[in-house]
């Protein structure tokens, strides 16, 4: 949960997750949708799917005990070199290095590496040095201390070298290069994406679609999400045509709506949210569809924008967006 997330954001999720799944067996026995529902809002949902799959594999192939060695850990879904080292050193005090954002920066400065830390050459040098640096005993405490050092003292900008216990062996400090190492990572320009999300209403129920494998937010539920490439104005006929193309339904798009803007990885998404009235047809395609009442929305694992849309619909009751 802490990967690419802050501690403050995680605490509530962690407590709810452990309350529902107090053991590996409980997690392994769970339905994936329930796991995703408890993960909703943390993003990077492949982490939840991998955690669930790893729990099942540990129960099935390791008698319910998480392996203690790095090699076995890396055979589990979603566990790479960094996570394997974290589990081995923190849980079992095995001599295993951890290279993540904070420790990578510390090691790069100790070695005075001029290359970006993500480069192959830098990664090879950092991992090689890290493997030699971790002590045979108290490996977990060492790794935790190094992560804390990077998070609080050896920070990306204006490192507090006067407080650092490692200046005597830091090549970057000796050369006065601690402000230049590691070089800043170039962030790619986000790609703009225009989409629409249409909530189709039939009586008191709304049509939900579960994103199939291969789509963004796979396994999560949404309203009907369609591209609106090049459309400066998202018209009602455009929405009706998009719904028919997506799942074969005939609908009557309603006026009104609102816009959500959010960023996912390298995509900056503009999402027009609208409602439509069901006319005829049955939804088709590879995805799973369900008609659900507003009161049932909390039981579904929604994507982040779909949850915001669902909350708006719940607040409006049975009314369309055009009436608010």
Précis, in short:
With 324 residues, the chain is α+β, with helices and mostly antiparallel strands. It has helices spanning 7-20, 24-29, 32-39, 46-61, 70-73, 81-92, 101-111, 120-133, 139-152, 171-174, 236-247, 304-316, and strands at 191-202, 205-210, 221-222, 224-227, 250-253, 258-264, 267-280, 288-293. α6 (81-92) crosses α9 and α7 crosses α8 (120-133).
Molecular structure report:
- This protein is 40% helix and 17% strand.
- It has helices at 7-20, 24-29, 32-39, 46-61, 70-73, 81-92, 101-111, 120-133, 139-152, 171-174, 236-247, 304-316; strands at residues 191-202, 205-210, 221-222, 224-227, 250-253, 258-264, 267-280, 288-293.
- The longest helix has 16 residues, at 46-61.
- Strand 6 (258-264) and strand 7 (267-280) form a beta hairpin.
- Strands 1, 2, 3, 4, 5, 6, 7 and 8 form an eight-stranded mixed beta sheet that branches.
- The protein has a domain at 191-323: Nucleoside Triphosphate Pyrophosphohydrolase (Alpha-Beta Complex), CATH 3.90.79.10.
- It is elongated and about 75 Å long.
- The two termini are 38 Å apart.
- With 324 residues, it is an alpha+beta fold.
